[in-house]
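Exercise 3.2. Students should predict the tertiary structure of the chain below and write it as structure tokens, then compare their answer with the key that follows.

Predict this chain's 3D structure.
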Amino acid sequence: MATLFTTTEERKTISADGLIRWMGLSAILAGSLFIAIQLIHPPDQLPSVRTSSWLVVSGLTSLMSFSSLIGTVGIYTKQIKESGWLGLVGTLIFSLFWLASLIFSFIEALVLPVLIDEAPEFVEGFLGIFGGYSTGADLGFLPLLAPLAGGMYILGGVLFGFAIIRAKVLPRLAGVFLVFSAVATLGASIIPHPYDRVLAVPMGLTLIWLGYLLWSRRKKNILL
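Answer key:
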């Protein structure tokens, strides 16, 4: 006769599964915002910092970065045993990028608008890091942190993608897409800014797909 009560282990499993599903929704949100932000991002120029659209996009970027961080952890948790050390290393590096993105977007949203009148040289120099131009402003270690974060995005995405392929819990093609999305960023060296923003679209779509897989509890499909 079926019992009306669940054991402690069963309750833990149900709770963990539910949490992973919500993390999947976070990945879907992150991927959607990652794509949408590229379409509405104002020019990386000094006058833009004074606009309301700058504040909105910076705030959405912060939300996207935080959601990506949660989504990445959820994807790793789904395959934590099967992905092994490769999954752990890939998750840590990929997560560090999203954390760096969160910090940069926080500065863009709450710090740059305050400094624009008192230190316009610093603000313009900060914008130049991502706009692809140099102003000669003294920004300390920030110009070094930006390419380091970019390296974490590529390396972390590649390792995390291979971990998905290796684990065989989620479709291997999703891992292939993640690797491609990360490596595609190298195209920014030949595509002028801001047209290089299109390179974020594959990653956004991949995050949406992986998030859907977590939310729908699907492991494998015909795409393997």
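Discussion points: Helices lie at 8-40, 52-78, 80-115, 120-131, 142-167, 172-183, 201-215. The two ends are 38 Å apart (CA to CA).
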